[in-house]
Amino acid sequence: MKIKKGFTLIELLIVMAIIMILAAILFVRFSTAQKKARDATRKADLKEIQNALEMYADDHKGAVPVRTQLGPPVEVSDLTELSPTYISRMPSDPKNNDDFKYFYYSPGKQYWLRAKLEAQKTADAEIDVGGKTWDNACGSPYATCIIKQGSDYFFRLGNG
């Protein structure tokens, strides 16, 4: 009698399917962890920029760099007044593509910073800033926002 050594085709296919399912689960978890890490970096970057703006304001009688264009807010990289005196280098978004950038808007004594988040998918519909309601002030329903009005700060995270 002849003894067969090896695996049948069905056994090999079952093992391959199990391996592919496990790989898919690990890929999704790793991808989510990367998104959360980039979101944490974004929040830390906004806080760093906020600190630089406050130091600038202390040296300029409470005023921050003015950016009041009627169009979209400017990218944070355009805040050349802050670097290198108040911040060693201006942070940029970890992805730094057209969908993920840091933005800034200010008429002079108040400002807001915006960063789009990846891992969090809810947000407040509006933010009340000094008596004026800014509908979705961050410009994105999934954004993290620091808004300053006078001495008050509105720090809204993208998780609502």
Task: Please explain how this structure is put together.
32% of the residues lie in helices and 20% in strands. With 160 residues, it is α+β, with helices and mostly antiparallel strands. It has one domain (40-156). A hairpin with a 5-residue loop joins strand 2 (102-105) and strand 3. The radius of gyration is 24 Å and the shape is rod-shaped.
Summing up helix and strand content along with how strands pair, one would put the structural category as alpha+beta
- What percent strand? 15-25%
Helical coverage, percent range: 25-40%
Low-confidence spans: 122-136
Kindly summarize this structure in a few lines.
The chain has 160 residues and is α+β, with helices and mostly antiparallel strands. The protein has 1 helix and 7 strands.
Strand-helix topology:
Layout (H helix, E strand, L loop, with lengths): L8 H51 L14 E2 L26 E4 L5 E6 L9 E4 L2 E4 L7 E7 L2 E5 L4
Antiparallel strand pairs: 1-2, 2-3, 3-6, 4-5, 6-7
Keywords:
160 residues; 1 helix; 7 strands
